[in-house]
Amino acid sequence: MRLVPTVAFALSFCASIPTAYAWGPAGHEIVATIAQIYLHPTVLPTLCTIIDFSSTNLSPLDSTCHIAPIATWADRYKSNMTWSAQLHFIGALDDHPPSSCAFPGKKGWAGTKRVNVLDGMKNVTALLQGWVKGETSDDAANEALKFLIHFFGDSHQPMHMTGRERGGNQVKVAFGGKETNLHAVWDDSLITKATSTIPQNYTLPLPYYPEIEQALRGSSYDPYIRRIIREGIFQKWADEIPGWLSCPDAVKPTSVDAQAALGSGGTTGIEILPDNDVLCPYHWAKPTHDLLCDGVWPKEVDEPPYKRTDKNPQPPLLELDTPAYSGMIGQRWLVEKQLAQGGLRLAGILNYIFAGQGQRGAFIEEC
Ligand SMILES: *[C@@H]1O[C@H](CO)[C@@H](O)[C@H](O)[C@H]1NC(C)=O
Ligand SMILES: *[C@@H]1O[C@H](CO)[C@@H](O)[C@H](O)[C@H]1NC(C)=O
Ligand SMILES: *[C@@H]1O[C@H](CO)[C@@H](O)[C@H](O)[C@H]1NC(C)=O
Known about the structure:
Blueprint lengths: L24 H13 L5 H8 L22 H4 L40 H16 L5 H17 L17 E4 L2 E4 H14 L14 H6 L6 H15 L4 H4 L11 H8 L17 H10 L27 E2 L3 H9 L2 H22 L12
Parallel strand pairs: 1-3
Antiparallel strand pairs: 1-2
One 2-acetamido-2-deoxy-beta-D-glucopyranose binds next to loops.
């Protein structure tokens, strides 16, 4: 690992404040909104020149300069961009959370070479760097940017980091008594629950932080974002954040595991492109994937009475809105941390691409 990197850019409003005060659609939009808060001031106008809002069916109101409205574009048009469906996730052949977590393990990754979310992030970043140099067309940059914003959301959703049962889509569970599936619990249910149980004080604008308020759009999740920033980014995780934005020096293909396997009989899966010292999706995704074996993929679904077997073809649904599951996740601030990491890392990359902000991009802190 590098030493804690120098932060290239800190929003200046801290300095000017004299005293100390201090993944469904919502998930993707929250990641994009947090990113927008941390953009270098010159970057947002550039992004909004690149994005062709007219192609996204947005109302004129939505298309004022915000990036959240296009954060789910890649999902909305998945059906007529079928080639892109595999770009939203990655999974290792050996992965079977929660009993064995492989990322990628001995066999390597499932799928087609270059067609996964981690390689997708590198592809679209390179295309956008090409746009800055005048080598990528405006149309290609428009598409690449919409994918980039989306991929930072997907790559921080743990269920997008495994191929087991289609990332949990095939695992039927209940949440609040309603049938759903494990993937959807992480896309939507946990966020919906969190946004509906925010202390009342966060419904009001946070004083002294106009950069936060300017990025909000009157959404139901605004109070949630204020809380994530105020209690999470400014407090709980303040010391860790420089580490979130850093990348290890070593540029290694996929993992040591996969290399070991090459020496002992070869992989059957694919390899991914190496991380670099600014964009390291594999390094960032690894701890997200680890969560699957740390309580996020409930082990009960593999045990009686919930395990589906020939003798038990219609098992009862495991309820996940319980103290042991949603309560545990809430207490650990797991969802909030994933959203915050996705947002800050996205801001860092956008600042790097479009403002040449040294290595790391922005972060703001409590003053
Ligand atoms: C997908 O279909 C919609 C209309 O159904 C269209 O407006 C849009 O341009 C299409 N997107 C692509 C990338 O072809
Ligand atoms: C790279 O991104 C471009 C722009 O969005 C896309 O058209 C292309 O299919 C991508 N290629 C891969 C291998 O992901
Ligand atoms: C809002 O209320 C919560 C709980 O009462 C408290 O912990 C938090 O510090 C308050 N936040 C602000 C910004 O006042």
